[in-house]
């Protein structure tokens, strides 16, 4: 079986995790602080807060942006459901916007078409690693007084202009789930620009406690914490951070390899693209994708045809999957009224995610291309 993704984990990660265990400090501690500092260096962010997941990072970002009950938050329906669910955690309501048919990302035009008076913030997802134009979106948000949060769950190592994703906005949320580009088993990171907000969110991460465990253990006398508001336990462990530090050092190699494998797909499938059989992902004008997932879209035949092709690939031992889900089509969110979402529905019905992982061999790559072509005749 050729899987859709295989994390690149090795002895170095195993050793780092073992060292954390042997040190006796396994919960959030010095390795988490080190991971946060390294993450700032890589992304160019001001502050980085390591968390239990990207979902919890999105929750804290919404709190940091001052979003609450009665507010509306513009989100792409075309995203993993956590993007939409996070809005509910602060008592706000998602406002679904459509995406661009080429990049599968929100644009100023699709946001403009969906904005309502209740709108307080925007969550823009860099879908499957494809960088959204957050420079243009930020300018649009500023002109309407809206907060901007980036869901960069898939986008560590993607670039816009000369910057890494993570350097552009007040709040950028990352995931380290094994399905993403870097992994710590489970885990997330929130980069934050404002120092005061970062301090508050750091406290909310651990029950809104006024002093951290590290500070308490390092203090000479007895330090009693206070709890100024209702907080959460959204911490990452030092075992995860130890793995994360090793993974982060591999980022340039991982992204280079993913881009090379993507380019190979683009070459090999170019004839299907020119014959209007499929849409291929390609870098947007000002950005460079990390190709967290290589998602193609069938241009005819609808969902039935897509599912048929997935079936043929599965028979051939290829772990391709449906591309990107649409939250507004799920029972949990079916009651929300929304503008027409034609591009979102086309992407969710007709897209296919192809296998792509660091140690993918030439033979495996050729097999995927061959079987896909066979399935599409
Ligand atoms: C995976 C993913 C998430 C959730 O990340 P977790 O770390 O599993 O919480 C959120 N948004 C998008 C776009 C994702 O792909």
Mean pLDDT over the residues: 96
Query: Which oligomeric form is depicted?
Result: single chain
- Largest beta sheet: strand ordering: 1-9-8-5-4-2-3
Determine the number of helices (DSSP H or I, runs of at least 4 residues).
14
Shape: globular
Q: What is the CA-CA span between the terminal residues?
A: 22 Å
Which stretches are poorly predicted, pLDDT < 50 over at least 5 residues? none
Largest sheet, strands/sense/barrel = 7 strands, mixed
Integer-rounded radius of gyration: 21 Å
Q: Which structural class should the secondary elements be placed in?
A: alpha/beta
Portion in beta strands: 5-15%
Order of helices and strands: HHEHEHEHEHEEEEEHHHHHEEEHEHEH
Q: Which ions, cofactors or small ligands are bound in this entry?
A: pyridoxal-5'-phosphate
Q: Can you give the helix content as a percent range?
A: 40-55%
Number of extended strands: 14
